[in-house]
Amino acid sequence: MEMMEVANHGERSTSDNMNRHLDSNGKYVRYTSEQVEALERVYSECPKPSSLRRQQLIRECSILANIEPKQIKVWFQNRRCRDKQRKEASRLQSVNRKLSAMNKLLMEENDRLQKQVSQLVCENGYMKQQLTTVVNDVSCDSVVTTPQHSLRDANSHAGLISIAEETLAEFLSKATGTAVDWVQMPGMKPGPDSVGIFAISQRCSGVAARACGLVSLEPLKIAEILKDRPSWYRECRSLEVYTMFPAGNGGTIELVYMQTYAPTTLAPARDFWTLRYTTSLDNGSYVVCERSLSGSGAGPSPASASQFVRAEMLSSGYLIRPCDGGGSIIHIVDHLNLEAWSVPDVLRPLYESSKVVAQKMTISALRYIRQLAQESNGELVYGLGKQPAVLRTFSQRLSRGFNDAVNGFGDDGWSTMHCDGAEDIILAINSTKHLSNISSSLSFLGGVLCAKATMLLQNVPPAVLIQFLREHRSEWADFHVDAYSAATLKAGAFAYPGVRPTRFTGSQIIMPLGHTIEHEEMLEVVRLEGHSLAQEDAFMSRDVHLLQICTGIDENAVGACSELIFAPINEIFPDDAPLVPSGFRVIPIDAKTGDAQDLITSNHRTLDLTSSLEVGPSPETASGNSSSSCSSSRCILTIAFQFPFEPNLQENVAGMACQYVRSVISSVQRVAMAISPSGISPSPGSKLSPGSPEAVTLAQWISQSYTHHFGSELVTIDSLGSNDSVLKLIWDHQEAILCCTLKPQPVFMFANQAGLDMLETTLVALQEITLEKIFDESGRKALCSDFAKLMQQGFACLPSGICLSTMGRHVTYEQAVAWKVFAFENDNNNNNLHCLAFSFVNWSFV
Hints:
It is found in: Nucleus. Residues 153-381 form the START domain. Residues 22-86 form the Homeobox domain. Residues 92-123 form a coiled coil. The protein folds into four domains: 34-88, Arc Repressor Mutant, subunit A (Orthogonal Bundle), CATH 1.10.10; 157-377, Alpha-D-Glucose-1,6-Bisphosphate, Chain A, domain 4, CATH 3.30.530.20; 388-433 and 443-491 and 505-530 and 542-591 and 632-675, 2-Layer Sandwich (Alpha-D-Glucose-1,6-Bisphosphate, Chain A, domain 4), CATH 3.30.530; 693-845, PAS domain (Beta-Lactamase, 2-Layer Sandwich), CATH 3.30.450.20. The chain is globular and about 85 Å long. Strands 3, 4, 5, 6, 7, 8, 9, 10, 11, 12 and 13 form an eleven-stranded mixed β-sheet that branches. Strands 14, 15, 16, 17, 18, 19, 20, 21, 22 and 23 form a ten-stranded mixed β-sheet that branches. The protein is an alpha+beta fold. A hairpin with a 5-residue loop joins strand 4 (197-201) and strand 5. Helix content is 35%, strand content 25%. Helix 1 runs antiparallel to helix 4 (69-132), helix 11 (462-471) packs across helix 16 (650-675) and helix 17 crosses helix 18 (723-731).
């Protein structure tokens, strides 16, 4: 409260100062309403006008003619200060509300834990009493039995209402009581900036996860969103409500059939037949609870049902309570029995892990709600002018298309083909009549082929693998195949690769579109640069654009799945663009003794990447003590690539698909060995990233070279400053600092945060941008005229000018400074020229 009072007092003082100015007699005079209105108009356009702009304002606006330019400057300073104070006051209010709500949640969690402790103490005392009691005759009466659910008639309304009330009681005991022994989810610590509090079951039948958090949406809105499970649960294939009728207390009962995707090609998918009960409690809370019903229930035809294994949902659901001051507190419980007996032993940890359920369902639900809340408040900004709902739809379509390809359901039109010599790759085909799910404009195609494989990886961190595949596409992808996939989605544009020969430069530019609140998922456009080799099209660009989502690149996320899914898209980026996704999915699995070879010896088609390599040390010699924990880590990699084809090219495309996926697998083999933390050296093509030893060294060279040439410090370092602090100071420097290579075609190799913001790019995409690309014609001329001076004396000052960002936006700068960066050795006598550095002063977007 004291912080709020100080902020409000400061705002009042600033407002008083803004309303007055000194006249010619040195007395304070209040601004008139017309003067304030004129100043506010200018402020809305430019909060920080230059001296020339302020003088122009006085000349053009007669009502400001009697005010000194210095007073105008002071007014704008006070106005900016008032805006800053308002934002700070709003931020403090928001933090205060979050802390109050989080404190309430923690107090409730503490009460629940105290009850659990009391219950355990009572059970402990009872067990001690039983152990000290001599029982001469052990009868059945002494056996403690767990009460079983009495049979209910699920075919009558009365029976369903009874099941609903029982489900409600069980769910509430899990959400706020001690029915399940909950432990904190590893790596998910609660706090004011966290999404929520997460826990997983320690000892219970099935797998269970629990979450609670604060969301700035009303309870009814949250209930509607969570009930629409396909919108946020990526593994939900379909959800259909077969029956709905009102319950006696104002609630509703629904009979729901849901199908879910299998995460790999090695296990059948799951389906659920459940009762869902929605009601309100006496304290104003809303509850949506759900549990499985016995029997086959509704569902697909017997032929379609054979593709699924019926799983069980134990009492689960959502408790949504209105919060003081607006918003809601949500409790989520997911409790499932996924019938792990139906999958190979090596996959069973995926179906027996509460952490996996927490990441896929519980945490995803809460994150999705938080995402929608921030979007509704206008807190998130997305690229290319797209609305958040459109970008979410793109992400969902990419994920769903990839899941469809991996599962290959017969009722979607998929059937397995024979693939010569490819025992390890499954080749499936989908006919034209089912392509309407992708786009109604693809009627000219003969169908879509999918080549897919699943493999076991040893000692490969999933997040690192996906990040490498994303950042180094040229290490595994064939750009000509990407061009073919893009071309076949345009009627009559191409017939087959090679009809229009194209030279690809090997460079990719990643343009971010949006991301989720914790950056666990990123949506982006990838541009692959290419040029036609045909003489008549010599000046035409043959760039290929891919829409891509990347998830799970946080190495600290426990049980999280990592994915890289992409699809060719038209360069104009229409909202209804047809998408045929391909990509990679990597799922970590808990270590389990004795089943390392189960995946290889199973009847399913699978590969073990690392075991087939002939390079590098053996696992016994490569893994020392430091990597003993990694030696037992395993993950499942699923690859699925889709290829549209025209009717007369099915066999050709099938052969190309098998050959291409084999080459991708071979490339991933090399990558898996290179990034394995078992003592094997990283690949020579690794890129420079902040925090790496190479980046720390480069930061020192940049700073030392600047001082050597200009005689002043680029960054101020105290006497106790470490090498890492130099990198941090340069990374956070307000001016845009970029380094480029010394080649005939200089390419950028490093930039600080301001440099990345100026070029609107990432560190990965930066290294595909040449120096000449960022300057306009006048800038290139200025650079050429001063380049000889730069190379001769070691530094040069370039005049103000305009450069271009990767998004095509113009950026102005007052001055640019360039200097040589030397690789300073310890003796300082043999300093080799390493690169060129540029600093753009006072840059801004036009």
